[in-house]
Design brief:
By secondary structure, the chain is of the alpha+beta class. It has eight helices and 24 strands. The strands form five sheets. Strands 10, 11, 12, 13, 15 and 18 form a six-stranded antiparallel sheet that branches. Strands 4, 5, 6, 8 and 9 form a five-stranded antiparallel sheet that branches. α2 packs across α4 and α4 packs across α5. It is elongated, with a radius of gyration of 32 Å. The relative contact order is 0.07.
Length: 485
Amino acid sequence: MKKFILTMIISLCFSLGLFAIDASISFATFKTPDNPYIEVYLHIAGQTVAFKEMPDSMYQANVEVVILFKQGEEIIKFDKYALNSPLTKNRLDFIDLKRFALEPGDYNLVVAVSDLNEEGNAKEYNTDFTIGFPETEICQSGLTLLSSYTKAEPGQNNMFVKNGIKMEPLPFNFYSRHASRLIFYNEVYNSDQALGEDYLVSYAVEPANKENAKPIMIGHKRQKPAPIVPVLIGMDITELPSGNYNLTMEVRDRTKGLLSSKTVFFQRSNPFLKEAPIEMVDFDVKEEFVQLLDAEELEYSLRALTPKIPQNDVEGVNNMIKNENLEGQRLYLFSYWAGQAPNNPKAAYDKYMEIAAAVDKMYDSGFRHGFETDRGYYYLKYGQPDDMEMRDQEPSAPPYEIWTYYEFPYTNQNNVKFVFYNPSLSPGDYVLLHSTAIGERSNPGWLRELYRDAPANELNGNDPFGGTDVMDNFNRNASRVFRDY
Protein backbone atom coordinates (compact mmCIF):
# COMPACT_ATOMS: atom_id res chain seq x y z
CA MET A 1 0.00 0.00 0.00
CA LYS A 2 1.35 3.38 -0.94
CA LYS A 3 0.95 6.18 1.53
CA PHE A 4 0.55 9.87 1.00
CA ILE A 5 0.44 12.58 3.64
CA LEU A 6 -0.95 16.05 3.24
CA THR A 7 0.51 18.31 5.94
CA MET A 8 -0.88 21.58 7.26
CA ILE A 9 -1.20 23.86 10.29
CA ILE A 10 -3.67 22.65 12.93
CA SER A 11 -6.33 24.91 14.39
CA LEU A 12 -7.45 24.45 17.97
CA CYS A 13 -10.78 26.29 17.71
CA PHE A 14 -13.92 25.40 15.74
CA SER A 15 -14.19 28.74 13.96
CA LEU A 16 -10.58 29.71 13.22
CA GLY A 17 -9.38 29.84 9.63
CA LEU A 18 -7.08 27.01 8.47
CA PHE A 19 -4.21 26.91 6.02
CA ALA A 20 -4.57 23.37 4.64
CA ILE A 21 -6.43 20.18 5.41
CA ASP A 22 -4.35 17.51 7.11
CA ALA A 23 -5.37 14.37 5.22
CA SER A 24 -3.84 10.93 4.92
CA ILE A 25 -4.53 9.47 1.47
CA SER A 26 -3.44 5.93 0.63
CA PHE A 27 -4.56 3.08 -1.62
CA ALA A 28 -4.21 -0.64 -2.27
CA THR A 29 -5.08 -2.77 -5.29
CA PHE A 30 -6.96 -6.09 -5.17
CA LYS A 31 -7.96 -8.90 -7.53
CA THR A 32 -11.37 -10.42 -8.30
CA PRO A 33 -12.36 -13.05 -10.88
CA ASP A 34 -13.84 -10.27 -13.03
CA ASN A 35 -11.86 -7.04 -12.76
CA PRO A 36 -9.20 -5.80 -10.37
CA TYR A 37 -10.18 -2.95 -8.10
CA ILE A 38 -8.52 -0.24 -6.04
CA GLU A 39 -9.40 0.93 -2.55
CA VAL A 40 -8.72 4.59 -1.75
CA TYR A 41 -8.45 5.40 1.97
CA LEU A 42 -8.96 8.89 3.42
CA HIS A 43 -8.32 10.08 6.96
CA ILE A 44 -9.18 13.70 7.77
CA ALA A 45 -7.58 15.27 10.86
CA GLY A 46 -10.43 16.95 12.73
CA GLN A 47 -8.19 19.71 14.09
CA THR A 48 -7.59 21.00 10.56
CA VAL A 49 -11.16 21.52 9.31
CA ALA A 50 -13.98 23.82 10.42
CA PHE A 51 -16.90 22.36 12.36
CA LYS A 52 -20.22 24.16 12.04
CA GLU A 53 -22.83 24.22 14.78
CA MET A 54 -25.74 21.84 14.43
CA PRO A 55 -28.94 21.38 16.52
CA ASP A 56 -28.66 20.18 20.13
CA SER A 57 -25.24 21.85 20.62
CA MET A 58 -23.58 19.38 18.26
CA TYR A 59 -20.98 20.15 15.57
CA GLN A 60 -20.13 18.66 12.20
CA ALA A 61 -17.39 19.04 9.59
CA ASN A 62 -18.12 18.81 5.86
CA VAL A 63 -15.49 18.05 3.23
CA GLU A 64 -15.84 17.75 -0.52
CA VAL A 65 -13.82 14.92 -2.08
CA VAL A 66 -13.00 14.58 -5.76
CA ILE A 67 -11.32 11.39 -7.04
CA LEU A 68 -10.12 11.07 -10.64
CA PHE A 69 -8.52 8.17 -12.51
CA LYS A 70 -6.78 9.34 -15.66
CA GLN A 71 -4.88 7.81 -18.55
CA GLY A 72 -3.04 10.61 -20.25
CA GLU A 73 -5.55 13.46 -20.51
CA GLU A 74 -8.55 11.14 -20.58
CA ILE A 75 -10.58 10.77 -17.39
CA ILE A 76 -11.44 7.07 -17.03
CA LYS A 77 -13.41 7.30 -13.79
CA PHE A 78 -14.64 10.14 -11.66
CA ASP A 79 -16.32 10.55 -8.28
CA LYS A 80 -17.34 13.68 -6.40
CA TYR A 81 -19.10 13.61 -3.06
CA ALA A 82 -19.46 15.27 0.34
CA LEU A 83 -17.84 13.54 3.30
CA ASN A 84 -19.40 14.50 6.63
CA SER A 85 -17.96 13.86 10.05
CA PRO A 86 -20.14 12.29 12.75
CA LEU A 87 -22.09 14.71 14.91
CA THR A 88 -19.89 15.57 17.86
CA LYS A 89 -19.30 17.94 20.74
CA ASN A 90 -15.51 17.75 20.30
CA ARG A 91 -13.24 17.78 17.31
CA LEU A 92 -12.56 14.29 16.00
CA ASP A 93 -10.90 12.66 13.03
CA PHE A 94 -13.06 10.93 10.43
CA ILE A 95 -12.36 8.42 7.70
CA ASP A 96 -13.70 7.10 4.41
CA LEU A 97 -13.01 4.32 1.92
CA LYS A 98 -13.97 4.10 -1.74
CA ARG A 99 -13.65 1.14 -4.12
CA PHE A 100 -13.31 1.40 -7.91
CA ALA A 101 -13.21 -1.42 -10.44
CA LEU A 102 -10.61 -0.72 -13.12
CA GLU A 103 -9.32 -2.42 -16.24
CA PRO A 104 -5.67 -3.52 -15.98
CA GLY A 105 -3.30 -0.74 -16.94
CA ASP A 106 -1.39 2.36 -15.89
CA TYR A 107 -3.26 5.24 -14.26
CA ASN A 108 -2.82 8.63 -12.69
CA LEU A 109 -4.77 9.04 -9.43
CA VAL A 110 -5.89 12.55 -8.42
CA VAL A 111 -7.49 13.18 -5.03
CA ALA A 112 -8.67 16.68 -4.06
CA VAL A 113 -10.20 17.55 -0.70
CA SER A 114 -11.69 20.91 0.28
CA ASP A 115 -13.37 22.18 3.43
CA LEU A 116 -16.98 23.16 2.67
CA ASN A 117 -17.11 25.31 5.82
CA GLU A 118 -13.82 27.20 5.30
CA GLU A 119 -13.18 28.75 1.90
CA GLY A 120 -9.68 28.13 0.53
CA ASN A 121 -8.92 25.29 2.94
CA ALA A 122 -8.10 22.64 0.33
CA LYS A 123 -5.43 20.25 -0.81
CA GLU A 124 -4.79 18.11 -3.90
CA TYR A 125 -2.61 15.09 -4.45
CA ASN A 126 -1.83 12.96 -7.52
CA THR A 127 0.33 9.92 -8.19
CA ASP A 128 0.84 7.22 -10.83
CA PHE A 129 0.11 3.55 -10.23
CA THR A 130 -0.33 0.28 -12.13
CA ILE A 131 -3.10 -2.23 -11.59
CA GLY A 132 -3.27 -5.78 -12.94
CA PHE A 133 -2.71 -9.36 -11.80
CA PRO A 134 -1.53 -12.49 -13.67
CA GLU A 135 -4.16 -15.17 -14.21
CA THR A 136 -2.29 -18.22 -12.89
CA GLU A 137 0.93 -17.02 -11.18
CA ILE A 138 1.29 -16.32 -7.47
CA CYS A 139 0.65 -12.64 -6.77
CA GLN A 140 -0.41 -10.37 -3.92
CA SER A 141 -2.73 -7.47 -3.27
CA GLY A 142 -1.43 -4.22 -1.88
CA LEU A 143 0.00 -4.44 1.64
CA THR A 144 -2.33 -2.52 3.95
CA LEU A 145 -1.34 -1.28 7.40
CA LEU A 146 -4.22 -1.19 9.89
CA SER A 147 -4.78 0.82 13.03
CA SER A 148 -7.32 -1.71 14.34
CA TYR A 149 -9.62 -4.55 13.37
CA THR A 150 -12.66 -6.28 14.89
CA LYS A 151 -14.91 -9.12 13.93
CA ALA A 152 -17.85 -7.74 12.00
CA GLU A 153 -21.27 -8.00 13.61
CA PRO A 154 -23.75 -10.37 11.94
CA GLY A 155 -25.31 -8.55 9.02
CA GLN A 156 -22.81 -5.67 9.24
CA ASN A 157 -21.82 -4.76 5.72
CA ASN A 158 -19.98 -1.54 5.02
CA MET A 159 -16.94 -0.53 3.04
CA PHE A 160 -14.57 -1.29 5.91
CA VAL A 161 -15.68 -4.94 6.22
CA LYS A 162 -13.76 -7.56 4.27
CA ASN A 163 -13.96 -11.34 4.81
CA GLY A 164 -16.02 -10.85 7.94
CA ILE A 165 -13.49 -8.47 9.53
CA LYS A 166 -13.94 -4.74 10.01
CA MET A 167 -10.56 -3.13 9.33
CA GLU A 168 -9.56 0.50 9.84
CA PRO A 169 -6.55 1.63 7.76
CA LEU A 170 -3.64 3.23 9.60
CA PRO A 171 -3.41 6.98 8.84
CA PHE A 172 -0.08 8.43 7.75
CA ASN A 173 1.61 4.98 8.08
CA PHE A 174 2.62 6.20 11.51
CA TYR A 175 2.64 4.27 14.79
CA SER A 176 2.69 6.63 17.76
CA ARG A 177 4.07 5.84 21.21
CA HIS A 178 0.57 4.73 22.19
CA ALA A 179 0.55 1.93 19.59
CA SER A 180 1.49 -1.53 20.80
CA ARG A 181 0.80 -3.66 17.72
CA LEU A 182 1.62 -3.48 14.03
CA ILE A 183 -1.30 -4.96 12.08
CA PHE A 184 -1.36 -5.60 8.35
CA TYR A 185 -3.66 -7.17 5.77
CA ASN A 186 -2.78 -8.80 2.46
CA GLU A 187 -4.33 -11.20 -0.02
CA VAL A 188 -2.45 -13.96 -1.85
CA TYR A 189 -3.86 -15.02 -5.21
CA ASN A 190 -3.65 -18.15 -7.41
CA SER A 191 -1.83 -20.41 -4.93
CA ASP A 192 -4.19 -23.26 -5.86
CA GLN A 193 -3.14 -23.07 -9.52
CA ALA A 194 0.51 -22.12 -9.10
CA LEU A 195 1.35 -24.46 -6.20
CA GLY A 196 -1.41 -26.83 -5.17
CA GLU A 197 0.37 -27.47 -1.85
CA ASP A 198 1.00 -25.72 1.44
CA TYR A 199 3.27 -22.71 1.25
CA LEU A 200 4.87 -20.18 3.58
CA VAL A 201 4.08 -16.53 4.20
CA SER A 202 7.10 -14.74 5.70
CA TYR A 203 7.01 -11.21 7.09
CA ALA A 204 9.77 -9.01 8.45
CA VAL A 205 10.44 -5.50 9.75
CA GLU A 206 13.80 -3.93 8.97
CA PRO A 207 15.26 -0.41 9.15
CA ALA A 208 14.55 1.67 6.05
CA ASN A 209 17.25 3.36 3.97
CA LYS A 210 20.06 1.23 5.39
CA GLU A 211 22.15 -1.04 3.20
CA ASN A 212 22.35 -4.70 4.26
CA ALA A 213 19.98 -4.01 7.16
CA LYS A 214 19.07 -7.13 9.14
CA PRO A 215 15.44 -7.76 10.06
CA ILE A 216 14.53 -6.69 13.58
CA MET A 217 11.29 -8.67 13.66
CA ILE A 218 10.38 -11.68 11.59
CA GLY A 219 7.69 -14.32 11.45
CA HIS A 220 6.28 -17.10 9.31
CA LYS A 221 2.84 -18.55 8.74
CA ARG A 222 1.96 -21.70 6.82
CA GLN A 223 -0.97 -21.39 4.43
CA LYS A 224 -3.11 -23.79 2.42
CA PRO A 225 -3.64 -23.10 -1.30
CA ALA A 226 -6.83 -21.39 -2.47
CA PRO A 227 -7.83 -18.91 -5.19
CA ILE A 228 -7.75 -16.08 -2.62
CA VAL A 229 -6.01 -16.40 0.76
CA PRO A 230 -6.57 -13.45 3.13
CA VAL A 231 -3.69 -12.83 5.55
CA LEU A 232 -4.25 -10.74 8.69
CA ILE A 233 -1.28 -10.56 11.07
CA GLY A 234 -0.42 -8.57 14.18
CA MET A 235 3.06 -8.05 15.63
CA ASP A 236 4.02 -6.67 19.05
CA ILE A 237 5.96 -3.40 18.58
CA THR A 238 6.18 -2.27 22.20
CA GLU A 239 9.95 -2.82 22.05
CA LEU A 240 10.45 -1.38 18.54
CA PRO A 241 12.58 1.80 18.76
CA SER A 242 11.65 5.06 17.07
CA GLY A 243 12.65 5.18 13.43
CA ASN A 244 11.79 4.55 9.79
CA TYR A 245 11.07 0.97 8.80
CA ASN A 246 9.98 -1.27 5.95
CA LEU A 247 7.49 -4.09 6.42
CA THR A 248 7.90 -6.84 3.84
CA MET A 249 5.62 -9.81 3.26
CA GLU A 250 6.89 -12.63 1.05
CA VAL A 251 5.32 -15.77 -0.36
CA ARG A 252 7.68 -18.75 -0.49
CA ASP A 253 7.30 -22.36 -1.55
CA ARG A 254 8.30 -25.39 0.52
CA THR A 255 11.93 -25.07 -0.56
CA LYS A 256 11.95 -21.41 0.60
CA GLY A 257 11.96 -20.19 -3.00
CA LEU A 258 10.65 -16.63 -3.32
CA LEU A 259 7.43 -16.40 -5.34
CA SER A 260 6.13 -12.91 -4.58
CA SER A 261 6.89 -9.96 -2.32
CA LYS A 262 5.27 -6.68 -1.18
CA THR A 263 6.83 -3.91 0.91
CA VAL A 264 5.39 -0.89 2.70
CA PHE A 265 7.15 1.93 4.57
CA PHE A 266 6.09 3.07 8.03
CA GLN A 267 7.33 5.23 10.89
CA ARG A 268 7.45 4.43 14.59
CA SER A 269 7.66 6.83 17.55
CA ASN A 270 8.67 5.17 20.82
CA PRO A 271 10.46 7.94 22.78
CA PHE A 272 10.25 6.35 26.21
CA LEU A 273 11.52 2.92 25.24
CA LYS A 274 14.15 1.51 27.56
CA GLU A 275 16.20 -1.03 25.70
CA ALA A 276 15.72 -4.49 27.16
CA PRO A 277 18.82 -6.69 27.46
CA ILE A 278 17.09 -9.49 25.56
CA GLU A 279 15.55 -8.47 22.26
CA MET A 280 12.75 -10.94 21.75
CA VAL A 281 10.00 -10.12 19.30
CA ASP A 282 6.45 -11.34 18.98
CA PHE A 283 6.68 -14.53 16.93
CA ASP A 284 4.04 -17.19 16.60
CA VAL A 285 6.31 -20.19 17.19
CA LYS A 286 3.55 -22.81 17.26
CA GLU A 287 4.50 -23.98 13.78
CA GLU A 288 8.27 -23.46 14.11
CA PHE A 289 10.97 -26.01 14.85
CA VAL A 290 11.37 -24.83 18.46
CA GLN A 291 7.88 -26.10 19.26
CA LEU A 292 9.14 -29.68 18.80
CA LEU A 293 11.93 -29.27 21.38
CA ASP A 294 11.21 -30.58 24.87
CA ALA A 295 12.53 -28.98 28.08
CA GLU A 296 15.83 -30.90 28.01
CA GLU A 297 16.49 -30.11 24.34
CA LEU A 298 15.66 -26.44 24.86
CA GLU A 299 18.09 -26.12 27.77
CA TYR A 300 20.81 -27.95 25.84
CA SER A 301 20.30 -25.73 22.78
CA LEU A 302 20.40 -22.49 24.79
CA ARG A 303 23.49 -23.52 26.76
CA ALA A 304 25.20 -24.38 23.49
CA LEU A 305 24.26 -20.93 22.18
CA THR A 306 25.82 -19.07 25.14
CA PRO A 307 29.13 -18.32 23.33
CA LYS A 308 27.25 -16.55 20.53
CA ILE A 309 24.64 -14.44 22.32
CA PRO A 310 25.27 -10.96 23.81
CA GLN A 311 26.69 -11.20 27.31
CA ASN A 312 23.92 -9.08 28.78
CA ASP A 313 21.44 -11.71 27.56
CA VAL A 314 23.11 -14.59 29.40
CA GLU A 315 21.59 -13.86 32.82
CA GLY A 316 18.12 -13.57 31.34
CA VAL A 317 18.48 -16.86 29.48
CA ASN A 318 19.75 -18.58 32.63
CA ASN A 319 16.75 -17.25 34.55
CA MET A 320 14.38 -18.63 31.91
CA ILE A 321 16.05 -22.04 32.27
CA LYS A 322 16.01 -21.87 36.07
CA ASN A 323 12.34 -20.86 36.14
CA GLU A 324 11.43 -23.48 33.53
CA ASN A 325 9.95 -20.81 31.28
CA LEU A 326 9.62 -23.01 28.19
CA GLU A 327 7.64 -20.44 26.17
CA GLY A 328 10.31 -17.80 26.80
CA GLN A 329 13.07 -20.26 25.91
CA ARG A 330 11.39 -21.18 22.62
CA LEU A 331 10.79 -17.53 21.78
CA TYR A 332 14.39 -16.50 22.50
CA LEU A 333 15.90 -19.45 20.62
CA PHE A 334 13.75 -18.79 17.57
CA SER A 335 14.34 -15.02 17.78
CA TYR A 336 18.08 -15.57 17.66
CA TRP A 337 18.10 -17.90 14.66
CA ALA A 338 15.45 -15.93 12.80
CA GLY A 339 17.75 -12.91 13.11
CA GLN A 340 20.73 -14.90 11.82
CA ALA A 341 18.94 -16.63 8.95
CA PRO A 342 15.50 -15.08 8.30
CA ASN A 343 14.71 -17.30 5.33
CA ASN A 344 15.57 -20.60 7.00
CA PRO A 345 16.23 -20.34 10.75
CA LYS A 346 15.87 -24.10 11.26
CA ALA A 347 18.67 -24.92 8.81
CA ALA A 348 21.02 -22.46 10.58
CA TYR A 349 20.04 -23.92 13.97
CA ASP A 350 20.62 -27.52 12.78
CA LYS A 351 24.02 -26.68 11.33
CA TYR A 352 25.17 -24.95 14.50
CA MET A 353 23.88 -27.69 16.80
CA GLU A 354 25.74 -30.29 14.76
CA ILE A 355 28.98 -28.43 15.50
CA ALA A 356 27.98 -27.86 19.14
CA ALA A 357 27.36 -31.60 19.62
CA ALA A 358 30.79 -32.41 18.22
CA VAL A 359 32.42 -29.80 20.47
CA ASP A 360 30.48 -31.17 23.44
CA LYS A 361 31.89 -34.62 22.79
CA MET A 362 35.41 -33.37 22.04
CA TYR A 363 35.81 -31.36 25.23
CA ASP A 364 33.65 -33.35 27.64
CA SER A 365 35.17 -33.00 31.11
CA GLY A 366 32.68 -35.21 32.95
CA PHE A 367 31.39 -32.29 35.06
CA ARG A 368 29.66 -30.13 32.43
CA HIS A 369 28.94 -29.99 28.73
CA GLY A 370 32.03 -29.80 26.56
CA PHE A 371 30.92 -26.48 25.10
CA GLU A 372 30.76 -25.07 28.64
CA THR A 373 34.49 -25.64 29.18
CA ASP A 374 36.83 -22.84 28.19
CA ARG A 375 38.09 -24.63 25.09
CA GLY A 376 34.58 -25.56 23.97
CA TYR A 377 33.28 -22.06 24.65
CA TYR A 378 35.94 -20.32 22.57
CA TYR A 379 35.74 -22.93 19.82
CA LEU A 380 32.06 -22.12 19.35
CA LYS A 381 32.56 -18.39 19.85
CA TYR A 382 35.34 -17.93 17.31
CA GLY A 383 35.37 -21.14 15.28
CA GLN A 384 38.08 -23.70 14.65
CA PRO A 385 41.60 -22.27 15.06
CA ASP A 386 44.08 -22.54 12.21
CA ASP A 387 46.63 -24.26 14.45
CA MET A 388 46.32 -26.17 17.75
CA GLU A 389 49.53 -27.21 19.54
CA MET A 390 49.17 -29.52 22.57
CA ARG A 391 51.93 -30.22 25.11
CA ASP A 392 51.43 -32.58 28.05
CA GLN A 393 54.86 -33.96 28.84
CA GLU A 394 56.81 -30.98 30.16
CA PRO A 395 58.12 -31.58 33.70
CA SER A 396 57.69 -28.00 34.92
CA ALA A 397 54.21 -27.37 33.50
CA PRO A 398 50.76 -28.93 33.52
CA PRO A 399 49.28 -29.94 30.14
CA TYR A 400 48.61 -26.94 27.92
CA GLU A 401 47.40 -26.00 24.45
CA ILE A 402 48.15 -22.98 22.29
CA TRP A 403 45.65 -22.04 19.59
CA THR A 404 46.45 -19.69 16.71
CA TYR A 405 44.04 -17.83 14.46
CA TYR A 406 45.92 -16.44 11.48
CA GLU A 407 43.07 -14.04 10.68
CA PHE A 408 40.72 -12.81 13.40
CA PRO A 409 37.94 -10.64 11.89
CA TYR A 410 36.10 -10.25 15.21
CA THR A 411 38.67 -7.65 16.32
CA ASN A 412 40.46 -7.03 12.98
CA GLN A 413 43.63 -8.71 14.28
CA ASN A 414 46.03 -11.23 12.78
CA ASN A 415 47.95 -14.10 14.39
CA VAL A 416 45.79 -14.19 17.53
CA LYS A 417 46.78 -16.65 20.29
CA PHE A 418 44.84 -18.46 23.02
CA VAL A 419 46.69 -20.37 25.75
CA PHE A 420 44.77 -22.99 27.75
CA TYR A 421 46.21 -25.07 30.59
CA ASN A 422 45.10 -27.75 33.05
CA PRO A 423 46.42 -26.86 36.51
CA SER A 424 44.08 -29.31 38.28
CA LEU A 425 45.18 -32.23 36.04
CA SER A 426 41.53 -33.34 35.95
CA PRO A 427 40.56 -34.90 32.61
CA GLY A 428 39.62 -32.19 30.14
CA ASP A 429 39.67 -29.40 32.75
CA TYR A 430 41.55 -26.82 30.67
CA VAL A 431 41.05 -23.11 31.44
CA LEU A 432 42.03 -20.01 29.51
CA LEU A 433 45.38 -18.70 30.78
CA HIS A 434 46.11 -15.93 28.28
CA SER A 435 44.98 -14.50 24.96
CA THR A 436 46.11 -11.77 22.60
CA ALA A 437 42.54 -11.22 21.35
CA ILE A 438 41.24 -7.77 22.25
CA GLY A 439 38.62 -8.08 24.93
CA GLU A 440 39.68 -11.52 26.14
CA ARG A 441 41.81 -12.38 29.18
CA SER A 442 45.29 -10.91 28.88
CA ASN A 443 47.85 -12.23 31.38
CA PRO A 444 51.37 -10.80 30.95
CA GLY A 445 52.68 -13.30 33.53
CA TRP A 446 51.21 -16.33 31.83
CA LEU A 447 54.59 -18.05 31.34
CA ARG A 448 55.46 -17.75 35.01
CA GLU A 449 52.04 -19.12 35.97
CA LEU A 450 52.32 -21.97 33.50
CA TYR A 451 55.83 -22.93 34.74
CA ARG A 452 55.01 -22.38 38.39
CA ASP A 453 56.98 -25.51 39.35
CA ALA A 454 60.15 -24.20 37.72
CA PRO A 455 63.00 -23.26 40.13
CA ALA A 456 62.72 -19.70 41.41
CA ASN A 457 66.22 -18.87 40.19
CA GLU A 458 65.12 -19.55 36.61
CA LEU A 459 62.71 -16.63 36.54
CA ASN A 460 64.00 -14.08 34.03
CA GLY A 461 64.94 -10.86 35.81
CA ASN A 462 65.55 -12.66 39.16
CA ASP A 463 62.36 -11.11 40.52
CA PRO A 464 60.28 -13.74 42.33
CA PHE A 465 57.32 -11.34 42.53
CA GLY A 466 57.44 -9.27 39.37
CA GLY A 467 59.02 -11.67 36.85
CA THR A 468 56.89 -12.49 33.85
CA ASP A 469 59.15 -14.92 31.99
CA VAL A 470 61.16 -18.05 32.63
CA MET A 471 64.46 -19.27 31.22
CA ASP A 472 64.14 -21.31 28.07
CA ASN A 473 65.40 -24.90 27.97
CA PHE A 474 64.84 -28.21 26.22
CA ASN A 475 61.75 -29.13 28.25
CA ARG A 476 60.25 -25.67 28.36
CA ASN A 477 58.61 -25.01 24.93
CA ALA A 478 55.64 -22.72 25.53
CA SER A 479 57.46 -19.51 24.64
CA ARG A 480 58.77 -20.97 21.37
CA VAL A 481 55.41 -22.42 20.43
CA PHE A 482 53.73 -19.09 21.20
CA ARG A 483 56.19 -17.21 19.00
CA ASP A 484 56.59 -19.64 16.14
CA TYR A 485 53.09 -20.88 15.35
